[in-house]
Design goal:
Strand content: 25-35%
Oligomer: single chain
Distance between the termini: 10 Å
CATH class of the largest domain: Alpha Beta
Largest sheet: 7 strands, mixed
CATH superfamily of the largest domain: Vaccinia Virus protein VP39
CATH topology of the largest domain: Rossmann fold
Radius of gyration: 19 Å
Mean pLDDT: 94
């Protein structure tokens, strides 16, 4: 038996659900219609890995399909539960590590949406997550992974360069907030450290958020999925269903089991 994985750290941005939700309203992609189409096709039960505050799993649950969400950030889960209670939704929200989960059942659809895969920082974590998903699938199940298609030029930017990425009114503080971003990419590990700083009301704020993101290049990602006994049924480049190509911004992999003996 493999030893348990060390606990995954929870970045500071995931410890403030109110702030996270506000940013998600401005930055999250228009991916919900895509996932609702997949749910309509596959049916339930549906499992979302890295469900956060419920941006996807709650609307999915609202369709009447049995829905489960897993996340390791208590603050985000508390926010998701509060939203579900307010909307009177029947949804199961579990605290856990989506690299290693055991629900003792099969699922029709498992989704790893909006760059949640990029929190799998090493091969051990990637293999563990894919293996856990695989253990909950049948021949009819589907596993969908959504990550960005990396732009080599953006990875090569000066790590001292700081760009304004958001300029918005914070309704909770009732102040203008300017958010800047700095990227430091390590080619050896393929990890990009993203640093966010804030100016609030025209003054630098003490808050600094950092998050590490594992970058997946297209052929590498395909190989990792195939190594984990998945067949990529479709690889899409956006949420409208266009096939993946060299100019695509997204890598949307819709996978099924390939039927070979499991590696773990």
């Amino acid at each position: 038996m493999k030893p348990p994985l060390p606990a995954a750290p929870i970045p500071s941005i995931y410890q403030d659900a109110q702030h996270y939700d506000l940013l998600a309203q401005m930055t999250a992609p228009a991916d919900l219609p895509f996932y609702l189409r997949q749910v309509e096709h596959q049916g339930g039960p549906v499992l979302e890995l890295g469900c956060g505050t419920g941006r996807l799993c709650l609307p999915i649950a609202a369709t009447g399909v049995e829905t489960i969400g897993i996340d390791n950030a208590p603050a985000l889960l508390d926010q998701a539960r509060a939203k579900a209670e307010m909307a009177k939704l029947d949804v199961t929200l579990l605290a856990g590590d989506y690299r290693d989960f055991a629900l003792q059942r099969s699922l029709a659809l498992i989704i790893l949406p909006y760059n949640a895969a990029n929190h799998l920082l090493d091969l051990e974590s990637i293999d563990a997550c894919f293996a856990a998903a695989r253990r909950h699938m049948t021949a009819e199940s589907r596993f969908i992974l959504d990550t960005f298609n990396p732009d080599p030029k953006s990875l090569a930017v000066d790590p001292q360069r700081e760009d304004v990425i958001l300029d918005y009114h914070d309704p909770h503080r009732q102040q203008r907030v300017v958010m800047t971003e700095r990227n430091t990419y390590d080619p050896a590990t393929q990890i990009n450290r993203v640093t966010w700083r804030y100016q609030i009301g025209g003054q630098p704020d003490a808050r600094v958020d950092e998050i590490d993101m594992r970058v997946f290049f297209p052929q590498e990602l395909d190989g990792l999925l195939q190594h984990s006994n998945f067949t990529i049924e479709r690889k899409l480049g956006d949420y409208t269903g266009r096939s993946f190509g060299s100019r695509s911004c997204k890598q949307l992999c819709v996978c099924r089991l390939n039927g070979r003996p499991s590696r773990g």
